[in-house]
Write a structure and sequence with these properties.
1 helix, five-stranded antiparallel sheet, single chain, Immunoglobulin-like
Length: 149
C-alpha cells in the first residue's frame, strides 16, 4: 500500500515537473508585444565587457511583415537616454525576405539599472522590465528568455 502511494506521488511530481518545463520552454518573451513594432523578441544576450555591457536583442519578424530600414532603431533606458545599435545582423530565407534581426547595443551599468524599451518601426518592445543590473564577471554572459530580468 505504501509503495503504491509513493509511486503515485512520484508520478504526480514528475507530471508537474514536466508541465513546468514545457511551460518554461514555450512561454513568450513578452505576452503582448506591440504589433506596430512588426517583430517580437525571442531572447536577449547580455555580455560583460570590462565595466560595460553588450546587449544583443534577437527579434523574429512577424509573418507577412517587413522591417522598415528607413526608420531609426533605438534602445531607450529608464532615464530616457536613447542608444543606437552598434551592430545589426539580418537573416532570412530566399523569397521570404528578412525573418530575424539581431541588434547589438553597448551600454554602461547605469543604463541597465532600469527598464529598457526598443523603439523600432512604429512600435515599442519591452526588452527589460526589472531594475537590477545582471551580476556578471568580465567576459561572461547570460541569456534571458523573458523580459523580467
Amino acid at each position: 500500500m505504501k509503495r503504491r502511494i509513493l509511486r503515485h506521488s512520484l508520478l504526480v511530481c514528475l507530471l508537474i515537473s514536466a508541465a513546468f518545463a514545457a511551460w518554461s520552454c514555450f512561454r513568450p518573451y513578452a505576452w503582448r508585444p506591440d504589433p506596430a513594432a512588426r517583430c517580437k523578441v525571442v531572447e536577449t544576450l547580455v555580455t560583460r565587457d570590462q565595466s560595460f555591457f553588450w546587449v544583443d536583442v534577437h527579434l523574429k519578424v512577424n509573418p507577412g511583415m517587413t522591417h522598415d530600414l528607413q526608420k531609426t532603431v533605438r534602445l531607450e533606458t529608464a532615464t530616457g537616454a536613447r542608444h543606437e545599435p552598434a551592430d545589426t545582423a539580418f537573416a532570412g530565407n530566399d523569397g521570404h525576405g528578412t525573418t530575424e534581426i539581431w541588434f547589438k547595443f553597448w551600454l554602461e551599468p547605469a543604463d541597465l539599472a532600469g527598464p529598457l524599451t526598443l523603439h523600432l518601426n512604429d512600435g515599442k518592445l519591452l526588452i527589460k522590465n526589472g531594475n537590477n543590473v545582471p551580476e556578471l564577471a568580465t567576459s561572461t554572459y547570460r541569456n534571458f528568455n523573458i523580459n523580467h530580468w
